[in-house]
Write a structure and sequence with these properties.
This protein is 15% helix and 49% strand. With 545 residues, the chain is mainly beta. The chain folds into six domains: 2-111, Sandwich (Immunoglobulin-like); 116-217, Immunoglobulins (Immunoglobulin-like), CATH 2.60.40.10; 224-310, Immunoglobulin-like (Sandwich), CATH 2.60.40.10; 316-404, Immunoglobulin-like, CATH 2.60.40; 408-484, Sandwich (Immunoglobulin-like), CATH 2.60.40.10; 492-539. Strands 30, 32, 33, 35, 36 and 39 form a six-stranded mixed beta sheet that branches. Strands 13, 14, 16, 17 and 18 form a five-stranded antiparallel beta sheet that branches. Strands 21-28-27-23-24 form a five-stranded mixed beta sheet, with no helix packed on it. β27 (286-296) and β28 form a beta hairpin. The termini are far apart. 24% of the residues are buried. It is found in: Membrane.
Length: 545
């Protein structure tokens, strides 16, 4: 039967076309020929049964599909389309009713459920930036029956239908939604939903995509890179790279490199701030690039900085304590050893001024012919370098000791000392000299103790011979000590003694006169008490008063 209809097909087509035109005027095909279902819905590649019923006979079928008879009755015939493998088919049932050909077509809806529904959007998205959220529905037919809905957290963002799509063939559909995320969208889920609605004749086929959680990322500013602009070779410097206002801060990925080498980092996160710290060893001189790169999801930000590594050794004095005899010439010499940056300047200075200076030479000297005043003088050896606009210096000091013979001056040892007898005074006589000289002052082989407080007596007067000496020589000077005493005092003492003697003698004379006038009375009394010698002695005593 299949074979027959295929062979007949071209002729039959013309026949039908011709006969249908005739039918329009007469009875309607619907009244004499029924097909069920009228609008078959069939999944591509599966089977469907079509029942044509009519009081007229025979019932014939015209189709390009494979079919088999699935049953027959007196007024009906059912056809099993065993495998619907075309997208656009409309089999034709036809009969001849009283020589009038009648036919009806069954317009098939051939469908294919979407094979896959896929979401396509970046996992992490930058806050405030627009991204395309794509939903791919793969291999679906008919597209005009498709509805694609994108949901965010259960609420539809977009619903799209394709009713103007006319092609029955399957195709791939991509629905695009421009999405902008906020930080609050964190953990919201996005899903895409495809529905192939074939109702009422067919099923409603639904297929959701896998859901995807939103991971908004905030990274609004470039990192802040903190490090010194310059550092000394061999030292370590701490470098910090920090990002603020980032979300989620704990996901910030840091990469720090110095001079092309990656550094070991320690990461700290506090709320919306993340920072990385590294200790950098500075092995070689020159300008090195410090680069910090921070990535957070799709955002990557990088900052760099040039760090100048310099080498400036400390000057080394040949002798940091020069000890020389006065009037000799000595060199203050300093040198620089080891690695050094170009442009190092060396200088020798004292408190006042620059004495010597040299560039690009690593030994410097200053010749001094010493005088006494140079004793205790200090020199500074300075190494200097301009590093990126700032001056770096290192220095070492050199001390100078000058030995010289003693010198006694008028101020340190006056020629004449005038003292008052009885006052407390100390003999001061010193001398300049290095090492400090010993000073001795003598008079007639008698050594005067210098600097000791002493009560001054007349014997201290005289001419003293002072001698100062140290290992480098001696100096001498005579010092005259004058002791003042007052002649006037002695006269006064003599006068007062004389005065007292006069007074005493006058009193004595006066008393004697008085005694003599009273002597007779007392004598009597004396005789009455003659028996007691003790009494007599007492009376005598009393009389002598
Ligand atoms: C086909 O349709 C006729 C008339 O409606 C009915 O009697 C018959 O049972 C149907 N056949 C099948 C197989 O459903
Ligand atoms: C139609 O054909 C298919 C495939 O051969 C078969 O599986 C199915 O049972 C048939 N249907 C009927 C009603 O005969
Ligand atoms: C099938 O489609 C054709 C044209 O596309 C239309 O003329 C015909 O009426 C349709 N048949 C049914 C049963 O809807
Ligand atoms: C479908 O086509 C009609 C007519 O051209 C139009 O009015 C309608 O907006 C179209 N629908 C869509 C979804 O494009
Ligand atoms: C649909 O997409 C799939 C892969 O996803 C591809 O193999 C196929 O060829 C596409 N179909 C069309 C019609 O572009
Ligand atoms: C996000 O959701 C996952 C699973 O739904 C959950 O484990 C996680 O704790 C959530 N995170 C936040 C920050 O809400
Ligand atoms: C979907 O398919 C059915 C056939 O089952 C049809 O009747 C309906 O009009 C279609 N819907 C759209 C929107 O094309
Ligand atoms: C350092 O940053 C500047 C701009 O700030 C850029 O031009 C340069 O290429 C960067 N250098 C490196 C090594 O990344
Ligand atoms: C040191 O030199 C000065 C001047 O050249 C001279 O007057 C003085 O005597 C010298 N002193 C010694 C200790 O040689
Ligand atoms: C000081 O150094 C210079 C240069 O090295 C040398 O010519 C000079 O003789 C030295 N002077 C003394 C006193 O050593
Ligand atoms: C500076 O040098 C001058 C002579 O060169 C000297 O008189 C002065 O005392 C010095 N000042 C200091 C602070 O050394
Ligand atoms: C520091 O050095 C770098 C690299 O040589 C240079 O780009 C920068 O301008 C310098 N800065 C100053 C203040 O000299």
């Amino acid at each position: 039967m299949v074979l027959l209809s295929r062979i007949m097909h071209p002729c039959l087509f013309f026949l039908v076309a011709w006969s249908a035109a005739g039918v329009v005027k007469g009875a309607a095909a619907e009244d004499f020929l029924h097909i069920h279902p009228e609008k078959p819905v069939v999944e591509y590649g599966t089977s469907v049964v079509l029942n044509c019923s009519s009081s007229c006979a025979p019932i014939n079928l015209e189709t390009s599909l494979k079919w088999a008879e699935a049953g027959t009755g007196s007024t009906w015939k059912s056809f099993n389309f065993t495998e619907v493998d075309q997208w656009s088919v409309a089999p034709l049932c036809y009969v001849n009713c009283e020589r009038t050909p009648l036919d009806r077509r069954a317009n098939f809806t051939v469908y294919r459920a979407p094979e896959r529904v896929e979401l396509d959007l970046p996992q992490k998205m930058e806050v405030g930036k627009e991204y395309n959220l794509n939903c791919h529905v793969v291999d679906v037919a008919p597209i005009r029956n498709l509805t694609v809905t994108i949901f965010k957290g259960g609420k539809p963002l977009l619903e799209k239908t394709f009713e103007n799509h006319t092609k029955p063939q399957p195709g791939n559909i991509t629905v695009t939604y421009p999405i902008t995320v906020e930080q609050q969208d964190h953990n919201e889920s996005i899903t895409c939903h495809a529905a192939l609605d074939l109702r009422p004749e067919g099923p409603l086929l639904e297929k959701p995509s896998a859901s995807q959680l939103l991971e908004p990322v905030a990274f609004p500013m470039d990192p802040l890179l903190e490090s010194p602009l310059s550092a000394e070779i061999g030292t370590q410097m701490t470098v910090t790279c920090e990002v603020t206002g980032v979300f989620p801060a704990e996901e910030a990925m840091f990469e720090l490199s110095f001079a092309g080498e990656n550094l070991d980092l320690s990461i700290h996160v506090l709320e919306e701030t993340a920072s990385a710290q590294a200790l950098v060893h500075l092995p070689s001189i020159g300008n090195h690039e410090l680069i910090c790169t921070v990535s957070l999801g799709p955002v990557k930000r990088s900052v760099n900085k040039t760090v100048t590594v310099f080498a400036l050794p400390k000057p080394i004095p040949e002798d940091d304590h020069l000890k020389v005899v006065v009037n000799t010439t000595v060199n203050v010499t300093c040198k620089l050893d080891g690695v050094k940056s170009p442009g190092v300047v060396m200088q020798i200075k004292d408190k006042n001024q620059t004495l010597a200076s040299s560039e690009d030479s690593f030994i410097i000297n200053y010749e001094v012919t010493t005088c006494e005043e140079d004793d205790g003088r200090e020199f500074l050896c300075i190494a200097q370098l301009q590093v990126n606009g700032t001056e770096v210096t290192k220095n070492a000091s050199v001390k100078l000791t000058v030995f010289y013979a003693p010198r006694i001056t008028n101020t340190s040892c006056p020629s004449v000392l005038t003292w008052k007898e009885g006052s407390m005074e100390a003999f001061i006589c010193s001398a300049h000299g290095n090492p400090p000289p010993t000073v001795e002052c003598r008079r007639d082989n008698m050594v005067y103790h210098i600097g000791v407080q002493q009560q001054i007596m007349r014997e201290h007067k005289g001419v003293y011979h002072c001698n100062a000496s140290n290992a480098y020589g001696s100096d001498a000077k005579d010092v005259t000590i004058v002791v003042e005493f007052f002649q006037l005092n002695i006269v006064a003492v003599a006068l007062s003694v004389l005065g007292a003697a006069i007074i005493i003698s006058m009193v004595t004379v006066g008393y004697y006169m008085y005694y003599r006038s009273h002597k007779v009375r007392k004598y009597r009394l004396k005789q009455q008490a003659a028996g007691n010698p003790m009494e007599q002695k007492c009376l005598n005593g009393g009389a002598s008063v």
